[in-house]
Amino acid sequence: MKKEHWDxxxxxxxxxxxxxxxxxxxxxxxxxxxxxxxEAAKRTCDECREYLSEKRVHSRIKRLFTAVISIDQxxxxxxxxxxxxxGGALIETDSQTFVEAGDRIIVGIFVHASAxxxxxxxxxxxxxxxxxxDRQKNYLAVSFVSEIEI
Length: 150
Prior knowledge:
Strand content: 25-35%
Shape: globular
Structural class: alpha+beta
Distance between the termini: 23 Å
Helix content: 10-25%
Oligomer: single chain
Number of helices: 3
C-alpha cells in the first residue's frame, strides 16, 4: 500500500489538520469514502506539506471505540480501542485475556460507542495478529491482517 502524506503528518497527529474528519475516515474505513473526498484530502496535504520524520509506518490516532475481541468460538472479551492506525490498534480489555503474542484473534470495532449494542454487528471486523501484551494494563497490541466481510 502506498504511503500517503497523512501517514506522517504533524498537523494530523496534533489534530490541527484542515481535513481532520475526512482523514479520520480514510484511516478507519476508507471503503465508505467518496473518491472526490479522497482527492480533496490529497490536494490539501500536497499544499500543506507538514510532514513528520518517519517514526512509524502508520500514524496513530487516539479514539475510544468499543471493541469485542473473539479469542475462539466460545470466548469473547470486551474492550476499548486506545489508539488505532491503518496497520493496527492498541486495545484495553475489560478483563484478563489468555492470549499470547503471535495468536490470531478477531476484533470487532464499534465506531459509535455511545450506541453500543452487543447484539448488533460491529462496524468493522478484522482478523488480527497479537503483537504485544501488557498484562498489568490489560493492553493488547494487534496488527491488522485482513478485514472480514460482515
